[in-house]
């Protein structure tokens, strides 16, 4: 349901706010020689960024002009690598070829202006690989230090991804340690690389506490939130990232898919186990017990992600550049909102849980300062705490994680509440003063009459 404050935020973000205006300077086409080539490469990269990224395009474009291209290219390079990793069709008969691409990417493909790849990925991602020369040409124009950061992270991520090819995190011996290693390879390293870029471009100082351990947690928090939210989409695509050692504790069969059994009735391709419980036929197979255990497993993974928040808050607290702060904070706030929306929510097993557009706009606009960000974390952690089922087997773990976030953010939440109270009181006070002034005037007139 649309709410007035969310509607206002959405409209303000679209038409009135300068919070996320673009700092990417795309030179006018028509300049001579190499400059014209660079201009059209930049136009392509900016366009493709908008198509392949749901959440990062806007926060990248608002970065300071000196580093927007570093981060844009960093994103596209990793997205291209991720497209190769993600394609379950193109390499289904030749996993070795997928591994070769992943490990060769940083040192053989990136920077080779003639290299491209056809037939891998879909839509805009496929186009990115087909026209990867544009990314390489702009990459070659970056300062050496920026190139080194991007190449190093791409090399390590490619190696980490290649290690996982054919290893299904939902199968085999996958445990929490392996889950953490995978999340480090695909997201924690991004945090490290971005931190190095901020420092290399002089926007954050290493001495000021740019810390790779905290940066790793920032990436893990985003990745783990995506993994638990995308349970159904991944399962339908033949992938499973929920660690086996966790879901086996909760499942009754050896199939992670039992949390989302296909049924003949409503709810899209897969109806949830919750629906099945109410279904006379499905219910015989999947009773209420399955629904409860699916939610218990989900809630355990939510708590596991929530435990990363203290590190994320510490990382954000140390940032000094407003645009870098916004770039880093907005995805984190979106993630805690998504986490709260997924918590104890049976819809995770029957569809995609999304936060409302208006709420997203409201969160983006509120990510300008640390106290505001902390207040949102406080709000979502409090909701998770309140909604924790009394009989959830992970209740102590969930409450401990939520309460730690609540404790760390309590002062900012109180301060924000006070500010809001003053803000809300101001119009009332102004009306009272105006009424008093008018009354005095008219009473004076009457008294004088
Ligand atoms: C220090 C610091 C800033 C750390 C953060 C590191 C970082 C950005 C990691 C990427 C993690 C991730 C899950 C990306 C895809 O998200 P998505 O699928 O929501 O994004 P998309 O919309 O672009 O596909």
UniProtKB/TrEMBL annotation:
- Recite the UniProt keywords alphabetically: Transferase
Q: Which Gene3D superfamilies match?
A: Farnesyl Diphosphate Synthase
Gene Ontology annotations of biological process type: farnesyl diphosphate metabolic process
Q: Where on the tree of life does the source sit, at the highest rank?
A: Eukaryota
Q: Please provide, in alphabetical order, the Gene Ontology terms of the cellular component aspect for this entry.
A: endoplasmic reticulum membrane
Q: Its Gene Ontology molecular function terms?
A: squalene synthase [NAD(P)H] activity
- A Pfam family annotated for this chain is SQS_PSY
Name assigned to this protein: Squalene synthase
Q: Organism source for this protein? A: Emiliania huxleyi (strain CCMP1516)
**Origin organism lineage:** Eukaryota, Haptista, Haptophyta, Prymnesiophyceae, Isochrysidales
